[in-house]
Design goal:
Elements: H1 11-19, H2 28-53, H3 55-59, H4 67-95, H5 97-116, H6 121-149, H7 155-181, H8 187-207, H9 220-243, H10 248-270, H11 284-314, H12 319-325, H13 327-336, H14 340-347, H15 349-367, H16 376-403, H17 410-443, H18 446-452, H19 457-463, H20 468-506
Length: 518
């Protein structure tokens, strides 16, 4: 908004106005900018949740994707999103945040358009990868643009509003995705994303200010190694059920991932300006908080992946009702987030984190007991229990990461949070998809397995439509087993998160106050 706007007026009215003391008003520009940046966050986060609703449609589509391909359709976006979010922020610092943000939105639109028009699974996967690259350029630069534009006294509230959009994005993705998919085709989900991204790009071009650049170099080798190591790890997890856990491909994938992660660590230690300095993880508090953030999103997005198919196949719900069905999980996030600081102040941060994992893991185990005969009210109650745990965990772990780093590394902390969240999401989808496929095929009647060897519900129903009851029962059994595995994993990881700072003190490496989780 131009300064001294009244002095540019004409006539006596303007003269009298300029002679009077003018009461300062909050400019409209930053408010409009905040709305646009938040909408960008909702778009890229919402796409993670929305595509889960399309899994049954994708599995039954003319593309005929395998069970592993379905997981990759969901996960490839998240993998590129997770691995490139830090370099996306670094690119904005070096090349200009507004420009990189605009490029990210255009890439997002191009990837969504390619996905919508995909003639086969390979092109769809390429489109998902391009969309993930665009999302990684969008997310960190929305916050960077805001922090450059808003005054110092409003930065705290601005960051809080921006952070809340990640939770709201999940709601919008489920509800909006469900509404779009009522059109009957998974392609509509990607078609709808194109004009939204283009409109947001136009609004960014109009509202976002140009921020100063810095000369920080982009760590291209570190970025390539991190993406390659992550993809190799997920390849091993996803292909295990189909190729066999002892197959050369799966074992080779895990070995390749371990080698690439080791090489990445060595490269980052020798780089003057690394993508992510591994030395940061020497801090027990930071290490445990990052593990905790990964574990929470591991459980949450594993639930998102299986919930959409369970409610559609197991409960017979339509896609819109399925999108609405996850809302009980978000109620504690919306209503209870403001009280987490009070709880933490009363019982301590470490106890709050421990309680969070009890709720998340316990909620997932509770959901694993909900079969087709369980009323939705019972299912929703366990969603609320899980949501309480997520509401307790996210602000607590975010705060632990923030205070574990000095103020001048706040940008690194923000990037680290985004990376751990998205990487946990990718792992959660990969693991639950793998367990679900293995348990579903094992639970199918032997004659159906022998005759058709299906790996998805859609394949089984297409091969034996008269055996729908047996197929759905096998899927529900697989869902229950998969949720049990995820729930137990979250509880074990939560135990490690809580014990890590305690064990580090017993080893004699007592951290300073800003380096403690308790």
């Amino acid at each position: 908004m131009p300064q001294n706007l009244l002095s540019h007026g004409r006539g006596p009215t303007a003269s009298r106005a300029s002679s009077r003391p003018v009461r300062p008003r909050p400019p409209r520009g930053p408010r409009g900018l905040l709305a646009v940046m938040c909408a960008c966050v909702v778009l890229v986060v919402g796409m993670v949740a929305a595509v889960n609703l399309a899994v049954p449609m994708l599995a039954a589509s003319a593309l005929h994707p395998s069970a592993a391909a379905v997981v990759w359709i969901v996960d490839l976006y998240v993998v590129f999103f997770a691995c490139l979010v830090i370099p996306g922020g670094a690119a904005g610092d070096r090349l200009g945040r507004k420009g990189v943000l605009l490029a990210g939105l255009l890439l997002f639109a191009a990837g969504a358009l390619l996905s919508a028009a995909a003639p086969d699974t390979a092109v769809l996967l390429l489109g998902r990868a391009v969309t993930g690259v665009g999302a990684a350029a969008v997310l960190p630069n929305t916050l960077a643009v805001l922090l450059h534009a808003v005054p110092a006294d409003r930065k705290g509230a601005t960051i809080a509003t921006w952070a809340s959009m990640t939770g709201i994005g999940g709601i919008v993705g489920n509800v909006g995705g469900g509404a779009v998919l009522t059109g009957g085709s998974w392609r509509w989900l990607f078609v709808a994303a194109v004009p939204v991204a283009l409109v947001l790009a136009a609004l960014v071009g109009r509202t976002a200010p140009v921020s100063p650049r810095n000369d920080r170099r982009l760590d291209v080798p570190g970025t390539v190694l991190l993406v390659a190591a992550s993809v190799a790890l997920l390849l091993g997890i996803v292909q295990g059920p189909e190729s066999g856990w002892s197959s050369a491909f799966v074992i080779g994938s895990f070995v390749c991932s371990a080698v690439l992660f080791a090489v990445w660590t060595l490269v980052e230690l020798r780089t003057a300006q690394p993508l992510l300095d591994p030395r940061l993880l020497r801090s027990p508090a930071l290490r445990s908080a990052c593990l905790g953030m990964t574990a929470v999103f591991f459980g949450m997005f594993a639930l998102f992946y299986v919930n959409a198919s369970f409610l559609q196949y197991g409960k017979g719900y339509g896609v819109l009702v399925t999108g609405l069905g996850i809302i009980p999980l978000t109620v504690p996030l919306i209503l209870g987030a403001r009280y987490v600081g009070r709880v933490s102040g009363r019982i301590g941060l470490q106890a709050t984190v421990a309680l969070a994992f009890v709720f998340v893991g316990g909620g997932l185990l509770g959901l694993s007991t909900c079969g087709t005969s369980t009323p939705y009210a019972g299912y929703a109650a366990w969603l609320v229990v899980t949501g309480i745990g997520v509401a307790l965990a996210l602000p607590s772990l975010s705060g632990a990461i923030a205070v574990s780093l000095p103020a001048e590394q706040a940008g690194v902390g923000a990037g680290l949070q985004s990376t751990t969240r998205e990487f946990g999401s990718a792992l959660g989808v990969a693991v639950i998809g793998t367990v679900l496929t293995a348990r579903f095929t094992a639970a199918l009647p032997a004659d159906l397995r022998a005759a058709h060897d299906p790996h998805t519900v859609a394949q089984a129903l297409a091969a034996a439509p008269d055996r729908a009851h047996d197929i759905v029962s096998a899927f529900v059994s697989g869902t229950e087993s998969a949720l049990r595995v995820i729930g137990v994993t979250v509880l074990v990881l939560g135990l490690l998160v809580v014990l890590e700072p305690l064990l580090s003190r017993r080893r004699g490496t007592r951290p300073e106050r800003s380096d403690r989780l308790s």
